[in-house]
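Deviation from plan, reported transparently: pyridoxal-5'-phosphate complex.
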Amino acid sequence: MNETLTKTAIKIKQAEYSNIGEVDFDNLQFGKHFGDHMFEMEFRNGEWGEPVIKPFGKIEITPALNVMHYGQAVFEGMKAFYVDENTVNIFRPDVHFERFNNSARRMCIPESDYETFISALEELIRLDKKWIPKKPGTAMYIRPVIFASDDYLAARVSDIYSYYIITSPVGAYYAEGFNPVSLTTPNGYVRAVKGGTGEAKTAGNYAASFLPAKKAQQAGYTQVLWLDAIENKYIEEVGTMNIHFLIGDTLITPKLTGSVLPGVTRRSVTALAAEWGYNVEERKISIDEVFEASSNGTLKEVFGSGTAAVISPVGTIEHDGNTIHIGNGKIGDFAQKLFDEITGIQYGKIEDRHNWVHSVEV
Ligand SMILES: Cc1ncc(COP(=O)(O)O)c(C=O)c1O
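Because the crystal trials were delayed, the predicted structure below was used instead.
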C-alpha cells in the first residue's frame, strides 16, 4: 500500500429509477443486467479522489482514451450469495482484493485500499439488495475494474485512472445438472509466459485468447487447455478456470509458475483437499503424464475451478490428434464433494471454518 490510498467515506447518490422490472430472474444471462448503482473513483494528480456510489449508467469518454489503445486495465470477478432476508455472503473478498492490487502493480496502475473496496461492496449490496437473486445456484456477480483514462496517443503510463465496481445478477451455472467440458490443446498459440502478464487479471490476456478459443469451439471443443509457452508440454490452465487432476489419491494442480492466474477457487480447492487427507501436489504436470495416467487407469478425475462455475468437470481432452475420455460424461465424486462444500459455505449452509465468507447485513 502506498500514498495513493484513500480512506474517505463513500458519498452515495441514490438511483431514482430502476429497470429491475424488465429483468427475468428465472432466465438470467451471465453479465447482461446490472444493479441500479455503481461505485466510481478517479485517480488524478497522484492520488485517488472522492469515492462515490451513483446510479449505474453511461460514462463519457473520448476515442483517445488511453486504455482503448494500450490496454492498461485490471479487473476482478467475485460473487455475493443470498443467505436470508438479512444476510448476503461475499466469498473471499480479501483474496480477490489482494489479486486486484497484484494485477495493478504489474500493469503500473495505482493500488487502492481494502477499506474503500469492502465498504463499496457492502454499500452496493445494501442498495441493490433486491437485485440479489434468491434461487439455488444463483448469485450477484461483482466486477471491479480500473483502467487508464488519460486522453492521449502515446504509449506511456497514464496519469489518470477510473475505478468502477458494477454488479450483475447471474443464474445457476448448472441449471440442468453438470455438463462436462471438452478441452483441446492450442495448435501453435500460447496464453502467457513467465515474466509476461499471465498472472495478472488484465484485459489483454483475454483479448489474446479469443482467437484460439474461437478455433477450438469451431472444432467442437468447449475451451482451450493452455500449455506452457516454452516447452509446449506443461499444463497451465483453461480459458477462465484453473485445472486439477486426481491421479490415484493425489490431487495435482499446476504450479503457479508466473504465467498462470492464481485462482481464488483453486486456492479453496487445494485447501479443502489437504484438510480431507488427500495428497495435494502443486507442481508442473505435463500433458503426457495425464495421457499416461489415463492409459494406465490411474486418472480418476479432471476438473476446472473458477468463480463462475465453482467446479467444472472435464469429460475429454484432445492433444495432438489423440483424445482421452474421463468419468463417462459425469462429475466425479471428489469434484462433487468440492462443489457441495464450497457452495455450502457460500450460501451459509455449511459452517465457514476458514473465514472465507464476508457476511453483509442487509
Ligand atoms: C484466466 C483465468 N484463470 C483462472 C480463473 C479462476 O479464478 P477464480 O477462481 O479466482 O475465479 C479465472 C477467473 O477469474 C480466469 O480468468
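The chain has seven helices and 19 strands. We consider this an acceptable substitute for the interim report.
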